[in-house]
């Protein structure tokens, strides 16, 4: 698991700015979605080109969050990175940053038929969950997925971001969610990157400018409190 470090001077700045360490003090589960980003074989399985070893360590936290939110009536969305031959042209600037052999391996692994496209076997899915393919780092990039429409249809105004990689697809999705007026939280021990430094840099940047950062335990406690004392419509 990552060694999470958010400097005290950053926490102090947040408190001075808004009067509290956390902008999210309560959750309305029915208006909350857990976004699980790219927890696929390509990023989780040992030996895969995109392997992020810490991703395997966050699986229990993701499963725990998913179960807790489902129990309270919230939505769980499993987001999957999809690569296609069409993206060689319509996302050419991304592919230019890969060696040809790495580009070909990625396109094959993350195609709909690829082993890398499948969700990691240790994840606990439920029939009521949603699975959402995306074709860009951010699931909210126009044309990349139908996530925004799904969340609006379900009355979601708060999203909890988990998955891999913290500093790429999780960060991109989280920043765009906030810009689209979703109250957005990054789950500090529910995201994984290839180093502690990369992980913490994203958490600090996000916490400073885009949304809240909390742990699995803190979110589960908020959900338990909501289950005991349902939030009135419009209240936070």
Task: Describe this protein with a few key phrases.
6 strands, 236 residues, alpha/beta
Percent of residues in helical segments?
Answer: 40-55%
Shape: globular
Determine the N-to-C terminus distance: 31 Å
Oligomer: single chain
Major sheet summary line:
6 strands, parallel
Query: What is the tally of beta strands?
Result: 6
Rounded Rg: 17 Å
Residues in β-strands, percent: 15-25%
Q: Name the average pLDDT.
A: 94
SSE order, one letter for each helix or strand: HEHHHEHHHEHEHEHEH
Q: What's the helix count?
A: 11
Runs in which pLDDT lies below 50 for 5 or more consecutive residues are none
> Which strand order spans the largest sheet, edge to edge or round the barrel?
3-2-1-4-5-6
Can you describe this structure?
Helices cover 42% and strands 16% of the residues. It contains 11 helices and 6 strands. It has helices at 8-18, 41-44, 54-57, 59-71, 87-90, 92-95, 100-109, 147-153, 166-179, 196-209, 216-228, and strands at 32-37, 75-81, 130-134, 158-164, 183-192, 212-214. Strands 3-2-1-4-5-6 form a 6-stranded parallel β-sheet, sandwiched between helices. The longest helix has 14 residues, at 166-179. The two termini are 31 Å apart.
What can be said about this structure in brief?
The chain is α/β, with parallel strands linked by helices.
Secondary-structure blueprint:
Blueprint: H1 8-18, E1 32-37, H2 41-44, H3 54-57, H4 59-71, E2 75-81, H5 87-90, H6 92-95, H7 100-109, E3 130-134, H8 147-153, E4 158-164, H9 166-179, E5 183-192, H10 196-209, E6 212-214, H11 216-228
Helix pairs in contact: 4-11, 9-10
